[in-house]
Amino acid sequence: MTINIALIDRDIETQEFVHSYLNSQNYTCSTRLSLNTYNTSDDFFYDFPQVKPDLILLEVDLPDINGLEFSNKILTSHPDTYIVFLTSNCRNINEAFEHNISNYILKESIKADLPIVLGDVLKHLCSKIFQKVTLRTEYGPADINCEDIVLIQYVNRKPIIYLENDTINICGHSLKSIYKHLNPTQFIRPNSSTIINMKHIKSICKNTIHLYNNNQLISVSRGRYTDIRQRYIQYCLQVTNNN
Fold first, then answer.
1. Residue 122's pLDDT band (boundaries 50, 70, 90)?
2. Of all helices (H) and strands (E), which one includes residue 235?
3. Could you tell me which residues are beta bridge partners of residue 40?
4. CDD domains given for it (predicted)?
């Protein structure tokens, strides 16, 4: 999965730092960050129909348009876009938040603040992007809520998704391709034929996964046990912290 980021800023030093920082990040095993840089809003709007960024890093004082005016134009047609202001002062910040700006970064502290602000925005973006997965079924394309998935298994040469109260036969997808569209902090692949939503795990013991409300025991392939157990512990800690 790719998260598209647009940087609209005339300052070469800012462009170079943002580009360097994003290139140094490996956000998740299945998420790639793609950056497009623009000097003016005209350049950006020319590319916008093709790029459709998930996140915009926006210099407030552009020569051809005010940052608030620019944001209103974007959010009116694409309200789910995240916009972070890059500014040299705080004079428009309160008004910016009234216009649903996600956050702001002072240019004088961009090296310290960019990782914090960007990390928070990307966390929310990934959470939103991973909420649903669109897959081909025997009845046509279907949007499936990831939270509803208990496990996915490869049975008779095709994936079957087991929901809490239903099953869905998937056509034209491999288990590997489905796994790439799932949140890596919530789903694990303990063996080559199974994907599990960790919220349904009761316990992991002796290379075997026990699920709630399911008598089936899922085996963990040799060599995957340590990684699977560590990821499950991290998931449990995350759930505890969120609560």
1. confident
2. helix 225-242
3. none
4. REC
- Mean predicted confidence (pLDDT) in 97-108: 79
Q: Which helix (H) or strand (E) holds 51?
A: helix 41-51
Q: Set out the domains of the chain in order of their start, with CATH numbers.
A: 2-129 (3.40.50.2300), 132-242 (2.40.50.1020)
Full-model pTM: 0.58
Alpha helices in 78-214 (DSSP H): 93-98, 110-129, 175-179
Three-state SS string over 168-188 comes to EEECCCCHHHHHCCCCCCCEE
Per the CB < 8 A criterion, the answer to whether 66 and 39 are in contact is no
Contact assessment for residue 10 and residue 39, using Cβ atoms and an 8 Å cutoff: yes
The DSSP bridge pattern shows strands 132-137 and 140-145 to be antiparallel
76 sits in which H/E element: helix 67-77
Of 207, 179, 210, which Cα lies nearest the Cα of 192? 179
- Res 29: pLDDT: 43
> Mean per-residue pLDDT for 15-36?
78
**How far is it, in rounded angstroms, from Cα 35 to Cα 13?**
16
- d(CA 13, CA 88) in angstroms, rounded, equals 14
Residue 38 to residue 77: CA distance in whole angstroms: 20
Strand order in 167-169's β-sheet?
Answer: 167-169, 158-163, 149-155, 194-197, 187-191
Distance of CA 212 to the CA centre of its chain: 27
* 41 contacts 73 by C-beta, under 8 angstroms: no
